[in-house]
């Protein structure tokens, strides 16, 4: 396996920063700013005004509601425009029934390389009822998505430099698609890199589909080392580990214990309905994003 070139794996010339003006979005803005500076990239700030069904159910108030929403959104975007001062950037407020179509259009028209967004990280029943805009984006996006969850510690963005990178895989093709990004980021930033896989304890699973990628500990360690190019030039030798337990919980816990400042994982696409995603392989990425204390870079496999 040849040495992985960072430029080939993650070229960041255009960053799409998505905001709903919430607190998580404000945290994500700081990452958009520091990543814009660190990569020398142009930041495209975008807010999509999605109609509120309750407000729009009263015809007489519709025009006033639209005007109020637009005025508020543009006022908030002016503030963001001010915060992006000094960076090459553009801001945009659009109106749409759903968020993804506008995001997809922006990716294509602006040649976006990286998406940055914040999320409330809803899980469980609330997620099933309300869905997850963030999850829809990182499962549909053809480019990597850096998600800032509600548990991310303030002021951990270091000029787009990540000093401890954690790559988690179950050896499925989808998860391995993210490996080049973890490896190349570690090379570029001279980071400590750890590769892990999480195995279930014997007898913990009944579903044969979930056992598809289960292997022995020795084989798992060997596979983790095989991901690392033999002639790769890392500042610190990458470490590998096999963990036991529920995958999302262990990934988050290892990241916390090792003071990781970036988790990298591969995700499956949105072939199935996101709101009904209760299957283990569908839930891992969302749980990691929702609970991690550091940003999570997802790459669709």
Question: Can you give a write-up of this model?
Answer:
The protein has 301 residues and is of the alpha/beta class. Helix content is 40%, strand content 20%. The protein contains twelve helices and ten strands. It has a ten-stranded mixed beta sheet with strand order 3-2-1-4-5-10-9-6-7-8, sandwiched between helices. The two termini are 19 Å apart.
- Beta-strand segment tally: 10
Termini Cα gap: 19 Å
User: Structural class, from helix and strand content?
Assistant: alpha/beta
Described by the principal axes of the CA atoms, the overall outline is globular
- The proportion of strand residues reads 15-25%
Could you spell the SSE succession in H and E letters?
HEHEHHEHEHHEEHHEHEHEHE
Strand order of the largest sheet: 3-2-1-4-5-10-9-6-7-8
Number of helical elements = 12
- Main β sheet profile: 10 strands, mixed
Helix percent band: 40-55%
Write down the Rg. Answer: 20 Å
User: What is the average of the pLDDT values?
Assistant: 82
Poorly predicted parts = 1-8, 123-131, 275-280
